[in-house]
Amino acid sequence: MVLDRYDRQILEILQVDGRVNNQDLADRIGLSPSPCLRRVRALEESGLILGYRALLDAKKLGLSLMALVHISMDRHTPERFANFEASVDVLPEVLECLLITGQDADYQVKVFVRDMDHYQDLLLNKLTRIEGVTGVHSSFVLRRVVDRTALALA
Predict the structure, then answer these.
(1) CATH of domain 59-140
(2) What is the mean pLDDT of residues 88-102?
């Protein structure tokens, strides 16, 4: 899909304010409401816009500890990876799971937990019990330096 300047402006605005109403969006990009709404719908239907979400404050929900967990697998087979991925997908503490290269690990998993006891339970009773997991290295996040969800559209 080829994006023109209006499409790019729509995407930039929606990434920052997904709740903007169509009239305000149209005013901000210099279109009338009807063509603006048609463009938004076309962007949604094309799959460029995957959805709209509320961003929550983890600390206010009692989730004060974020960890990045590097996980190594014993075998690099599609079945082993599929089993691991299905297992972590059902863990509510897991926000992100990435299959990675360039490290001693196969996966990087981002988790949010209440405290160290909660992390210990997740680690010892869930993550390390997944078949094929041979190594786990945890790093605890002290502070988020850059924390954005908007993609660069330049």
Answers:
(1) 3.30.70.920
(2) 97
